[in-house]
């Protein structure tokens, strides 16, 4: 694959590379590099020439609830725990019906594709059959990523509360089956959160994580009522995050924890030592009145962070919206505390591309155009604003910022997954 355009990527937090009239070359699924002149062995090969359109890495959503896509923008006047009970759990219970799940998951994957999110770490529901169906659909459509069957055997409605032994058996079955049958979509252990998992379930999951070297995703320190509930359930644990660690559910470099707003000092140390990827979902945190995560403080403390949608806590699928929201909320933190320097647009873009795309739970990194990365790319060129862009002589970085703040799927001209043009899934 050879793409020509204005190639932009963020090799590290706060650094952005812009190469105009450059060639992005992939060998098979993998980036070879970005070149100003076509490499000798590429001369004569077909080039997809996009003129001065922007070519950027595709987005990776480090934390999204696939079934909840149907509830995006519903029930936003409640806090986390009542929202789960009144809106989320009733919807997730419907995924016991495979026909319903099929319709919902096709719609979800179409929406991700439209938004340019070609890789993700997704929660499904407790239902093994529907979870497997999502994995299969995503693999066949050309996405890469991780999907987890949710585990929950306490503090859940009857329709979703699992038998502990059965929950573990189905989790193991999916871990094995995905390894045998899928290449780009992997399985990720998904204890919903501490309040929904008994110690027996967490212990069993910890054993599976060890046996199969699984990655893990869950939630931590999202909402004050939730944190208080964890303290009641585990009065002897040093903190919320330490509960996961005590059960073997925080494998180093293979763990994604969403939210992390109310971390205590020892939790900051634990997450840094374990190289946990914190999925920061500022839009969800505002929608559910959870709080504002101190992004700069966690970054300065050495915690790896990514910007994620948390749909349907977040109401937009498009990560561009969450990138802009992360910048905004970081500014609100800066207003409250000058030391918490706001995040810039290039910093937030890194948090939605290379930071999550490089999560070691994925088999190959994505989200950058460095050699060896999976070549997942978006071509951004908004025909509706092209005339104004030219009139104002907007720079590539201005056009990128304009897309992040105001653009939508109409501005995404093409999507490449693993070096090939990716058609709409369904
Ligand atoms: N904590 C436990 N489950 C959920 C969920 O579905 N969404 C969010 N935002 N937080 C959770
Ligand atoms: Fe979530």
Total domains, how many? Answer: 2
Distance between the termini: 24 Å
* Order of adjacent strands in the largest pleated sheet: 3-2-1-4-15-16-17
CATH-derived architecture of the largest domain: Alpha-Beta Barrel
The whole-angstrom Rg is 21 Å
Report the average pLDDT across residues: 98
What is the CATH topology assignment of the largest domain? TIM Barrel
Portion of residues within helices: 25-40%
The ligands found in this model are:
guanine, fe (iii) ion
Number of E-type strands: 17
How would you describe this structure to a colleague?
This protein folds into two domains: 2-57 and 367-421, Urease, subunit C, domain 1; 59-357, Alpha-Beta Barrel (TIM Barrel), CATH 3.20.20. The protein is built from 15 helices and 17 strands. The chain has helices at 80-93, 98-115, 128-141, 164-181, 199-212, 224-233, 240-246, 265-273, 282-287, 295-300, 319-336, 345-350, 354-357, 386-391, 396-406; strands at residues 2-12, 15-27, 30-35, 48-57, 59-65, 117-123, 144-148, 150-151, 185-187, 190-191, 216-220, 255-259, 277-280, 304-307, 377-380, 412-417, 420-421. It has a seven-stranded mixed beta sheet with strand order 3-2-1-4-15-16-17. β1 and β2 (15-27) form a beta hairpin. The protein starts with a strand and ends in a 5-residue tail after the last strand. The model has no long low-confidence stretch (mean pLDDT 98). The structure holds guanine (GUN) and fe (iii) ion.
């Amino acid at each position: 694959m050879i793409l020509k355009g204005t190639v932009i990527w963020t090799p590290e937090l706060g650094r952005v590379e812009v190469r105009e009239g450059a060639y992005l070359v992939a060998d098979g699924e993998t980036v070879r590099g970005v070149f100003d002149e076509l490499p000798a062995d590429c001369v004569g090969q077909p080039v997809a020439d996009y003129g001065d359109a922007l070519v950027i890495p595709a987005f990776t959503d480090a934390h999204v609830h696939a079934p909840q896509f149907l509830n995006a923008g519903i029930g936003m006047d409640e806090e986390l725990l009542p929202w789960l009970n009144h809106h989320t759990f009733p919807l997730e219970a419907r995924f016991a019906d495979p026909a319903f799940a099929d319709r919902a998951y096709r719609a979800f994957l179409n929406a991700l594709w439209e938004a340019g999110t070609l890789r993700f770490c997704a929660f499904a529901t407790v239902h093994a059959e529907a979870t497997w169906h999502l994995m299969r659909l995503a693999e066949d459509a050309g996405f890469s990523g991780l999907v987890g069957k949710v585990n929950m055997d306490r503090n859940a409605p009857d329709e979703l509360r699992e038998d502990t032994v059965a929950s573990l058996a189905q989790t193991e079955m999916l871990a094995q089956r995905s390894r045998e049958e899928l290449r780009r979509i992997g399985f990720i252990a998904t204890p919903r959160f501490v309040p929904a998992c008994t110690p027996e379930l967490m212990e069993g999951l910890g054993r599976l994580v060890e046996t199969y070297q699984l990655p893990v995703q869950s939630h931590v320190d999202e909402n004050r009522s939730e944190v208080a509930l964890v303290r009641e359930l585990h009065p002897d644990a040093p903190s919320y995050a330490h509960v996961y660690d005590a059960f073997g559910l925080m494998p180093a470099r293979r763990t994604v924890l969403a939210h992390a707003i109310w971390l205590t000092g020892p939790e900051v140390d634990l997450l840094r030592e374990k190289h946990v990827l914190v999925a920061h979902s500022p839009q969800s945190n505002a929608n559910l009145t959870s709080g504002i995560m101190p992004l700069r403080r966690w970054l300065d403390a050495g915690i790896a962070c990514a910007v994620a949608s948390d749909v349907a806590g977040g109401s937009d699928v498009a990560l561009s919206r969450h990138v802009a929201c992360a910048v905004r909320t970081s500014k609100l933190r800066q207003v409250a505390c000058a030391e918490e320097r706001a995040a810039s647009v290039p910093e937030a873009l890194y948090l939605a591309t290379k930071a999550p795309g490089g999560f070691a739970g994925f088999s190959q990194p994505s989200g950058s155009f460095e050699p060896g990365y999976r070549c997942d790319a978006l071509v951004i060129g908004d025909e509706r604003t092209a005339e104004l862009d030219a009139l104002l002589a907007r720079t590539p970085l201005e056009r990128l910022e304009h897309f992040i703040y105001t653009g939508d799927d109409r501005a995404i001209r093409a999507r490449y997954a693993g070096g090939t043009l990716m058609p709409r899934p369904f």
